[in-house]
Specification:
This protein is an all-alpha fold. The protein is 56% helix and 0% strand.
Length: 321
């Protein structure tokens, strides 16, 4: 008796899925902790941060970029509007990115790995720039004449004195990860979904850009640099090929493998005729007729494939007379 064939391996059960989830949570939390700890290394470079702020402000004027004050004046038309902008800046950034990763992890695992790697590369590049180029935000720059909306209208995520703020590095304005992460969220959702309205996800980075500039937390160039870094991360870590191909096949854009054309072969014939190989039998109209009694029978000769296949039928017909 042959032993039953064993399956290649059991499907991953709840323990394996749980271990994978814990591993991902620890990995993401560890990367974020490293980023937060690294940002604090440039907190003491206050003079350099203010000098860089002046250079960025002059560069924006030389490039004829719109002034950040134009966006802030729109927000200052009403206390409710500016308070909403401050709340958006303080409360949407991290929760939205976390929900984005959780949804991808549950519904689009291949896209989750891609998005997590892109965000890790983007954040690592941002940390390197924070350490090499400390930058005071426009709310601290006297030449900008902007209002610190977080301190004046609330809520604020930063301490009143940047030098004593132990929760955040206020001299890490470039690049704007608020905008970089929001843009990746939009691009990731557009790539992972098939809704006809998925382009509306771009409203999130657009709104984030207006908020970070209008609240005087970032310059326009902070968002531009974040976009360049994100583009480099996307080039370095492309979308999974399997995910792209599978999605295209589902949509019908990429045809799957074609089934081979069925070969025109005669049906199996039981008996001696089954051993005869050769071309397909002739059509029924071309079958060899049964000789009429009294007629001279032709001399026997080597059977052709057609006569060999028709022989059983001829015998049967003769037996029935």
């Amino acid at each position: 008796m042959t032993s039953p064939t064993k399956p290649a391996g059991p499907p991953p059960g709840p323990p394996a899925a749980r271990r994978r989830l814990i591993r991902e949570l620890l990995l993401v939390a560890g990367l974020f902790a490293v980023y937060k700890a690294g940002r604090t290394l440039s907190t003491g470079r206050t003079d350099e941060a203010y000098r860089n702020a002046g250079r960025i402000w002059d560069a924006e004027r030389a490039l004829h970029l719109p002034g950040e004050g134009a966006v802030q004046r729109l927000l200052l038309h009403g206390d409710a509007l500016v308070h909403t902008a401050n709340t958006y800046y303080a409360a949407v950034h991290f929760p939205a990115t976390a929900l984005f990763l959780v949804w991808l992890y549950v519904r689009r695992p291949a896209h989750y790995l891609w998005a997590r790697r892109v965000l890790a590369v983007l954040t690592g590049a941002a940390l390197a720039l924070h350490l090499t180029f400390p930058l005071a935000p426009p709310r601290m720059l006297g030449a900008a004449h902007l209002v610190d909306t977080g301190q004046v209208y609330g809520p604020s995520v930063y301490g009143a004195a940047p030098a004593t703020d132990t929760m955040a590095n206020q001299f890490a304005a470039m690049p704007s990860l608020h905008f970089g992460w929001a843009l990746m969220l939009a691009l990731g959702m557009i790539a992972a979904t098939r809704s006809r309205w998925r382009a509306l996800w771009l409203l999130h980075p657009l709104l984030t850009l207006l908020v970070v500039v209008g609240t005087a937390n970032h310059y326009w160039l902070d968002a531009i640099v974040a976009t360049v870094l994100l583009g480099g991360a996307l080039l370095l870590i492309p979308r999974p090929v399997a995910a792209r191909t599978a999605a295209a096949v589902v949509r019908g854009h990429v045809p799957g493998p074609k089934a081979p054309a069925a070969a025109a072969a005669p049906a199996a014939v039981s008996g001696p005729a089954a051993a005869v190989s050769g071309p397909a039998p002739a059509p029924a109209s071309a079958a060899v007729p049964v000789p009429v009694s009294g007629a001279a029978a032709p001399a026997p000769g080597p059977p052709t494939p057609a006569t060999a296949l028709a022989a059983p039928a001829a015998v049967t017909a003769g037996a029935g007379r």
